[in-house]
Structure formats: C-alpha cells, structure tokens
Amino acid sequence: MASTAPGYPLHFVPVGDLLGILPILIVGGGAVMVLIWDLVRPRGQEVWLAGLTGLFLLAALGTAIGQWIANSSPIVVFNGAYANDRFALFADFVVLITALAVVVLSPGYLRRRGLAEGEYYILLLASVAGMLVLDGALNLIVIFLGIELLSIPLYVLAGFARDDQRSQEGAMKYLLLGGFASGFLLYGMALLYGETGHTSLTAIHAFLLRDATAGHIDPMVLAAVGLLAVGLAFKVSAAPFHWWTPDVYQGSPAVVTTFMSVATKVAAFAVFLRLFSATLAPYRAEWTVPIAVVAIISMIYGNVVAVAQTSIKRLLAYSGIAQAGYIMIGVALGRPDGTEASLYYLAAYAFMNTGAFAVVTILSRKGEDCDRYSELAGLGRREPVLAGLMSLFMLSLAGFPLTVGFFGKFFLFSAAIHDGQLALAIWGILTSAVSLFYYLRVILKMYAPAADVGAVEEFEVASVSPEGTAVAAPTALGPAVLVVVLAGAGTIVLGIFPAVIYTLLQGISVVHG
Amino acid sequence: MSWPILSVTLFLPLAGAVAILAIPSSRARAIRLALMAVTAVTLGLTCVVLVAYLAVPPAAASKLSGTANGQSLSTIHSPITFQFQEQVNWLQSGTSLSHLHLAFNEGNSAFNQAAPPPINFSYHLGVDGLSVWLMALAALLFLVAAVVLSQRETRLRTFAVLMLLSEVGVLGVLTSLDLILFYFFWEAALIPLYFLMIGWGDRNRGRAALKFIIYTVAGSLFMLLAIFGVYFITGAQTGVYTFDLPTLIAAQSFVHTTQATTFSLFGHSFPLLNPQEWLFLAFALAFAIKVPLVPFHSWLPDAYSSGTTPFLIFFAGIVSKLGAFGLIRYNLTLFPQASHTFQPLMLGLAIASILYGALAALAQTDIKRIVGFASISHLGFVVLGIFALNVDGLNGAIIQMVNHGIVIAALFICVGVVESRFATRTLSELGGLARPMPVLAGLFLVVTLAGLGMPLLNSFVGEFLILLGAFQASPVWAVLASLGVILACWYMLRLYQGLTQGELRLPGTEAVSDQLQTVSRRLGRLDVGPVEVVALVPLVALMLVIGVYPAPVIRYGRFSAAQYVQAANRQTATDPALASSRASARNLP
C-alpha cells in the first residue's frame, strides 16, 4: 500500500496515503479555511477565528486518536516518505494539545495587547502542520520541508507585536539564526545523501548498518551527523546553539512564546529521536558522547544562567534550555529506554511549561507582557488560584514528586544509569539542585510578604489594594484560566499516576527505516 | 490485616486538610478545633498501630509477605519484620518487550542490546519496631503543634492545611516500604514545609527556607541515583528487579560486593570504591543533611531561628529524625558491608556533630540558635548509637530519637513563650524570668534537665545505652562522646540560668528593680497560658515516665535493634577486618 503502482497517472494519489497524513491535511486545510473566513468575516469577530482554528485542531486530534486506536502497527505512506506510527502519533498528540491550549489562550491575550489579527491563527495552523510533518518524516527532504513549514510562520509570529521593538528584534534574530540552522541541516543532509546515495531514512539506515557491520566508519557521514545535530540542537534550543532563545522568548508575544517553547521543541525532538536513535543507530558509538556533552552543557548553562535572570520570560527561556538538556539525555543514550524517557519528559514538559507560560499570558496587561520579576510580588494574595498553580508548575519544572516533572526526570535518570552513563545522571542531578534556586525564588516572590520585597512596594500595594480587593490587576477569567487549571490538573494527576502515559509509551512503535 | 489501618492513618490528615479548606477562613476557632481533632484522631490511630504491633509476638510475624516481585526470593526471610503490610501496584511496565524495543531491535541486533528491565514499583506500606515509635511521636508532636498554634496566627487556615500535608509526608516516609514510594514522600514532604517556612516566621525566613530546600534536595537527588543503582545492581546480580524494600533487603544476602563496578564515566570505570560503597555514601549524604551531621548542618541554625513555634515543634521534633530513621532503615539494611567499612567515618561525623554542636551552642546569644545547635549535638548521639553497629547502641539510638523529639519540642515551646512575651531572642537582654514566670521556669527546668541527660529523665536512658554501645565499638568514641554530655550541662544550664535566674532583666529597660512591681502585677499575663501548659505537661510527663520506668521502651526497642544489627552484620564473614565488630555484636546480653 505504500507505493504507487507503476502505470498510475502521476497525479493520482492513493486514498491510503492520504489517510495516513489525515491530521496534516486537516490542519493544513484548516489554515486555508481560516484564511478564507478571515477575508469574509465581519470586523471585530476574531473570537470566531479562534473557534474555527480550535475546531480544526480538535478534528486533527480526534483523527490522530482514532488512528492510534485503529492501527497498532505502523503505516508507511507516500513511498516510504512518511510514517504514521505510534511514535509520530504520540508527538502529534502533544503538539496538538499544546496548540489547542494556545488557541484558547490567544483571543483574550491578543485583545488585551491590541494584536488581534486573523493572520495569527493562519500562521499558527501552518506551523502546526509543519510540526505534524516533522513527527512522522521518514525522508530527508520531508524533514527539511517540515522544518521550514514550522519555522517560517514562527518567524512572523515572533514579530507579531509590530509596534514592540523587542518583538521585532527577536523576530529578526530568530530569522537570521534560524536561517543558519537550516543551512547546517541542509549541509548535513547533502553530505549524507552524497555519501549514501539516498534521502530515505530507511535506505540510509540500511546503508549505514552495512557500513558499520563491516567495521568501516565513514568520516563524511560523521561530518553529516555533526551538521544535522547542530541544526536540530538549534531548533530544540540546546546550548551552545541556544543564543536566539532568551531574546526571542522575551520579545515574542507571550502566547507565541508558549507555543514556541513547547510545540516546536516536541516536533524537533521527534525528528532528533527518530534520526539519531533509529536511523543513525549504527553510528551510535560515534555520536553518543558529543550529544551527551551538548546535553550536559545545556543543563549547566541553562540552569546557572537562569539564576541571574530578572525577567520571567527570560527565566523560562533559560529553564527551557536546561529542560532541552534533560530531554537530550534520552537522545544521547540512543536506546529504547532513553527514547521512551525523552518522550515521557516531552509530554510532561508540555503540561508544566504550557501552564507556566499560560499564567504569564493571563497576567499580561494592556500594552506589554507580564515580564518583570517584581510583577509577581504579592500574587499569592491577589490571585491565590493563579499563584498556587504557578507554584505547582515551578515545582514540577524543578522535578518535585507529586508532579509530572518528577517522573519525567525519574525515567530519564533511570535510563541513564541503566546504560552506565553515570556522568549524564550526575550532571542532571547537580543542575536540578541549582534549578531549585530560581524556581523556588519565583514562588517566594509570589508569597513573600510585602515587607520582604521592599518598603516602597509595600506602601504601593497597601494603597492600591486594600483588604485583598484586587484593584491592581483584575484577572481575565474564563477560558484562559481553564487552560491553566487543566494543565495543573494534568501535572498533578500524571504526577501521581505515571502509568497513564507510561503505558501509552509501552505500546509505541517507531519506524526507523 | 484486612483493614488498611496504615493507609487510613496516612491519609486521614489529607482528608482533614480538605475538610479544613471547606471552613471559611474567618472562623479561626473552628479551624483550630478541626486541626486539633484531626491530629488527635491521627495520634489515636498511630497508638492503635503501636499497641497492635507490640501485642503481636515478634516470632509469629517474621514472615516475608506481600512481595509480588520477589518470587525467587520468597523462601528467604528478610531479617526485618514488617507488619500491617499493604501493597497495591503503582506502575507496572510488564515483562514483555514493548513494541518500541522490538522495532529498535528489528534487523539491528548488532547495535542494540537487550531491552531494559521492566520498571515496577508499588504502593507498599508496613511498619516495624522502629517506625511504630516514630509514627506515634510524629502524631503526638503534630497534635502538640496544633494545640500551641495560636488562633490569631495570620492565615491560620493555610497554616493548618500545610501542617496536615506535612504530616502526610512524614507518616508516608515512616510507613513506605518501596524505595520509590519512600522517595516520593521524602521529597513531597518538603513542599508543604517550604511553604510553611516562607509564609511564617521572622524576616530572614525566605533565605532560610531556600537554603534548607536546596541542601535537602541536593542530597536527596543523589539518593535517587543510588536508588536506581540498588535497583539495577541487585537486579543484575539476583535477577530480581524490584524497588520493594523487604525483597531488596532479603536480596542483599546474594549481592557480591567484590564485583567490579558496573558504573562507568564514558567507558572509564570508577576504581576507588565498590558500587555498594558509592550507594551507601549517596544514601548517607541525603540522610546526613537531614539529620544534620556537622559538615552539612549549616541550614539548621537559620531554619530553627526563623521559624514559628508550632512549626518548629514538628520540624525540629520529627522531620530531623527522618534522617536518622533513613540511616537505620536503608543504610544498615541495604549496604551491610559498606556500613562496616564506613563505620569510622560515620562515627567520626557523629563525634564532630556532638562536639561542634555543643561548642557552637555555647557561643550563641540567640536563644533559638542555642536550641538549634543543642539539637545538632543531641542528634550526633543518635548517629553515634546507630553506627556503633551493636544492639545496645542501636537500641539507645531508637529511644533517643523519640526522646529528642519530646525534649526539643518542649524546649521550643518554652523558648517560644519567652520570645512571644518579650519580642527578643537575645539571651543577654533577658534574665530573672523565674519571678514573673514561675510556672514556665518550673517546666523549663524539667525540660532543661532532660536535655542535659539527667538520670530519672528520658534522655539519660538513651544516652546511657548509646554510650554503652559506643564503648563496645571502641572506648575512644565513648570517651569523646562523653565530653559532649559534659558540654550539654554547660550550654543547657547557660540557657536556663541566663533566662530564669539572676536579676530581672527585660529588653529595653534600664532600672529593672523599679519596674518589678509593675511586672509582677502583670504576672498572670506574662507566665505560660493554659494552652502552653496543656502542650507542655504531656511532654514533661513522658520525660518522667520514660526516665523512671524505661523497661518497656527498652524491651520493645531491643527487638527491632537486634533485627537491624542482624541485617547489618550479614555478608561480613569474608572480611577479616570486620570480625571484631561482629564478635562484639554477638557478645551482647
């Protein structure tokens, strides 16, 4: 069913192939539909655009769930170019759920910041389509296609706050450095193609397996692997390829940052895992140490630099770099338990990071994002629910038990120790201890009495909001809070019952080619 | 036991916390009564567990039960007897290969090894002669804290809820019999404690809380790595991959410690210590920070001096005992040979804690910091008793853990009363308080004497047994530790005399004698109130009861101590260097 039989006219695409990429078709088609609706809609009805976007994402999610249930064995379509296996579907779930959360957060936020435009949702859907392409890509060309489809809308989205200089600066940096990263990736692909003569991951894997079994290590392939790793490390924002991250995260509108920090990471790691742990597995002995070094650098750099931040978005950006380092442990192991652990962590990360950014989104007021550290002061009194949930997300990112972040680290460290990579586990542990410092400081900031913050601020708080009547920052209740609450519920429930996701991962399959 | 009494005890405070959340925060009286009711019922349940445990003849219960994962070990008895066991599967990854592993291995066998072992852990509870005592102590101290908690405390409802959540965490640590469940409670208990620390206390509390959490979690994370180490090493050598504590304890009889390390740093193996010794150190680090032993103690003075009295009652009273509990429950049983290898190290740290804590207590001017350093010194004795590695020492350590909980709670109540009345903690600003506060001075005297190890009071029993055990291990340790007892008289009496005896001195007053009349008129308001008396009297009564008639406590503690010593002395016959300590263990009465 995978191949087009000879004799068919070229333009004929088998239905089976189309069914295999149905979630992508729905999301891509959705982008077009939203574009059309945006042209004909009455002015000032952006909420309906969000509703329509959400509907398409839900449909795609439903389709993906249906495919998960229907096909326990992987389906390879388009002549081996795309695998609709459970690995891809799992990544699809995480991406789509995150995108849904972002769509729910968006209308209120965009209205408050005066950014409400229809293009936003079109770009978002296009980017999601790119991510879904990446999740199941089984061909170098398809990977590149997915990367670009993902990135180009994001460049625009990052600069979506057109009158905000920081947003523009971030977008420009993202575009330039992203272009370089794509270049690295493309060079890597070219070298790999030149050496093996294939773009299909299946064929490349077979070639490398033959090569390595014969005891022959090809330097050109090594160069290709290195270039691919650099390009992908950029996309997952792992140090030392992270330089764009803090500026872009800080400059972009908070909803875009939410989307970028979670969904992009998931899709890029999906490629990373499939490419390295599966396709390039024969060369594992060569790349495992460099990848481990990148993981360790990310963990150290992200966590240590986050300590010095005074901006919440930058703090979360550096925390994201550190988290990329943790997930990279699973890539560096290059074994099934590492892959499982990384996927688990990605799912966990989706809950806790979406939640944390969603709180930032809700707190953002007219004109600018909630970004300064001091804006959190006294949140425990003003917004007890939001502060409580934010604390939960911080504890989860720090890896405390009762939260999903604990089991994320649990499976990663367990896999690292089992594979004898003690250095990865020990650096993970040490940097986790460092991370407590800044995660807990956020909590401290929210709950510290005004006296600890400073006498002047205490006076201001006391004069503005007597007896807890929140005059200063009324929360836009409604769907946005629902996202935070759901993310919080997921963080706790999965933190107590890790089996929910773990059993899903047990039934996972990955086509490595 | 068909009725899951441990689960009920464990989750009763949680249910209580939810119930208290339903009370409007303005109804302070109702909240406080509910808090007292919940902690009292929990205490009742732990007493039921205690009595029921002591009623069962130990021999009848010594059967390893409920180890679903340990089929091949089911005939081997764990040296430790656990009762009231409950076990429910928590995460079962199954024994068959997952699809992912199959896909990886397909046509790729040259580059992928066999699938990793399944990860299984369970919700497994149980108690032994060590944890029943500590459970009862914990529940008692939480009740005392609830009694002392003032109705006027700011954000009373939040405090009550966090306190009950801490109790769940503490009881969970004491009852869990699965390494992952244990770690889960061990870390989760920190969350309410952290919020209690940042929300209530003096200005310094934010820094103190951060310091405490970072210290503790850094140590705990190494323990997490070591838990995986135990899991994989035991699994690789015995074929039983489990986090289940009774099974693991039984399995340690089969683990060869001489085998070369299976850990490697990018291919280079560690030549220095064998794996068991590394694992011992990782566990010991986590527990030494919690106790705390001396090089890891610097979080304690800050935390103890910035906290409020109700918080300190259970924080100093029971949370610090969890470290000593962990050393006994995990280090002795899982790493018997390493326990002997590192006996000098641990004893040295214990002696250092005893002496350093005592000397530092002498140098303090802040009354809460004096109590804090005294606590370090006292807990040094507990660790000394544990690593004497004989029945007397361990028996003393178990008793002393309970004793120290009672004494430190009472000390913090007394000191807390002084602080709340005069708004100062500086020793030199206070004096002669016995005249305006006679009741406090009387109770404080008993507590002080208990704290310095006076015969006929509880600490004497524990310290005596610990020194007896230390003497058997090596007279040098006992002599050094005795210095700590002498210093204890000094710093405890310095605190007591400084506060209660001599000229009446109050902060901010120069001509004190003129004001004595005024002060005396306010006598009723200055002295301890009914609430503090209600909290102190049971503690003081326990000090007297245990001090005068310690036989039951010693007898029941002895059985458990013997079990743990037996567990720690397994697998040591091949090592001639350890023969002496084994012999000393065997010669015991």
Write up this protein.
The complex is a heterodimer of chains A (513) and B (589). Chain A has 513 residues and is mainly alpha-helical. Chain A has one domain. Chain A has helices at 15-20, 22-40, 46-70, 86-113, 119-136, 140-158, 165-196, 201-213, 219-235, 244-251, 254-279, 284-307, 312-333, 336-363, 379-382, 384-398, 404-418, 422-447, 450-453, 455-464, 479-496, 499-506; strands at residues 75-77, 82-84. Chain A has a two-stranded antiparallel ribbon. In chain A, strand 1 (75-77) and strand 2 form a beta hairpin. Residues 451-474 of chain A have low confidence and may be disordered. Helix content of chain B is 68%, strand content 4%. Chain B is built from 26 helices and four strands. A two-stranded antiparallel ribbon of chain B has the order 1-2. In chain B, strands 3-4 form a two-stranded antiparallel ribbon. In chain B, helix 18 (391-422) crosses helix 20 (458-473), helix 18 (391-422) runs antiparallel to helix 24 and helix 19 runs parallel beside helix 24. The longest helix of chain B is centred in the middle third of the chain and has 34 residues, at 205-238. Chains A and B meet through helix 8, helix 12, helix 14, helix 17 and helix 18 of A and strand 1, helix 4, helix 7, helix 8 and helix 9 of B.
The profile of the biggest β sheet of chain B is: 2 strands, antiparallel
Number of strands of chain A: 2
**Strand and helix order of chain B:** HHHEHEHHHHHHEEHHHHHHHHHHHHHHHH
So what's the overall shape of chain A?
A: globular
Tally the helices of chain A: what do you get? Answer: 22
- How is the largest sheet of chain B built, in terms of strand order? 1-2
Number of domains of chain A: 1
DSSP strand (E) fraction of chain B? under 5%
Task: Report the helical percentage of chain A.
Answer: over 70%
Ranges of chain A where pLDDT stays below 50 over 5 or more residues in a row are 451-474
Radius of gyration of chain B: 25 Å
Instruction: Provide the structure class of chain B.
Output: mainly alpha
How far apart are the termini of chain B?
A: 34 Å
Oligomer: heterodimer
Shape of chain B: globular
Helical stretch tally of chain B = 26
